[in-house]
Design brief:
This protein is an alpha/beta fold. 30% of the residues lie in helices and 26% in strands. The relative contact order is 0.18. It binds adenosine-5'-diphosphate (ADP) and magnesium ion. The site of magnesium ion has 3 residues, from helix 1.
Length: 266
């Protein structure tokens, strides 16, 4: 399988007055096309800093990110804009991440500004409708407003928005953390479905190690900006080598024990 994402020796220091916080400390990871990589670690371990850098929303102090053979921080603004369609993100807060004044159709179509010859009018409407169906909602839901939907449905809308540019990589930063466990389960099943259908690779970031159990191929564990353990999901979760990982496992409920295939609309 080919390497889609190559994270090389990323370090990110934040200067706070006279002191420095090292949010990321020499982190290297790779992700193959179509694979799901879980990044777990307690709050403050550097997960969101990593996500922001992979999304080219922040610059590392040193190190680089290579997506599909392109060094993201070597691209000129025009080339970076073009590359952006290949990686999209879903955030934690299903309430704050959708503009309440816009209809769902407009929200989902928003990333199309990255594509010069993107479809318009009825073609665009059909495209948005198909995506809504893909994430388990009704194509006609594009005429409604975010407040008409539950938290789980809003995350489905956020996922549809992320998919509209046909990205090769989806970065989900605590995308299920604000949802109750049953709804989390449904969103995880949706992500698995989308991977199966579209072959999309996912960087799945969560403080809750119990969530990654049965969706990730590989799991990386972070502590204080460092990668402390990385391996197949089975190896890391069934036989963690680090006490820190064992502690994370002991602290969290495991989602695999909750109705594995609850596929109702959330
Ligand atoms: P996580 O997502 O795992 O909770 P973060 O990546 O948000 O962790 O944060 C890692 C560390 O970097 C924390 O100590 C946090 O306070 C610090 N940090 C993150 N962003 C900034 C920033 N913009 N300025 C200063 N410190 C930051
Ligand atoms: Mg975070």
């Amino acid at each position: 399988m080919s390497t889609l994402l190559d994270i090389r020796n990323l370090t990110r220091d934040f200067r706070l007055g006279s002191s420095t916080v090292t949010a990321l400390d020499n982190v290297s990871l790779t992700l193959n096309a179509g694979e799901i990589l879980g990044i777990v670690g307690e709050s403050g371990s550097g997960k969101s800093t990593l996500a922001r850098i992979v999304m080219a929303l922040d610059l590392p102090t040193s190190g680089t990110v290579v997506l599909d053979q392109q060094d993201l921080f070597d691209l000129n603004p025009r080339a970076l804009r073009k590359a952006r369609r290949d990686f999209q993100m879903v955030f934690q807060d299903p309430y704050g991440s959708l503009n309440p004044r816009h209809r769902v159709g407009r929200i989902i179509a928003e990333p199309l500004h990255l594509i010069a010859d993107a479809p318009k009018g009825s073609q665009r409407r059909a495209m948005v409708g198909a995506l809504l169906a893909d994430v388990g909602l009704d194509p006609e839901d594009q005429d409604r407003f975010p407040h008409e939907f539950s938290g789980g449905q809003r995350q489905r809308i956020a996922i549809a928005r992320a998919l509209i540019t046909k990205p090769r990589l989806l970065v989900a930063d605590e995308a299920t953390s604000a949802l109750d466990l049953t709804v989390q389960r449904q969103i995880l099943d949706l992500i698995l479905d989308l991977r199966r259908k579209h072959g999309i690779a996912v960087l799945f970031i969560t403080h809750n190690i119990g969530v990654v159990q049965d969706i990730c191929d590989t799991v990386a564990v972070m502590q204080n900006g460092k990668l402390v353990e990385v391996g197949t999901a089975k190896a890391v979760l069934d036989a963690p080598s680090q006490i820190y990982t064992q502690r994370l496992l002991a602290a969290e409920p495991r989602l695999d024990v909750i109705g594995r295939k609850a596929r109702h609309r959330s």
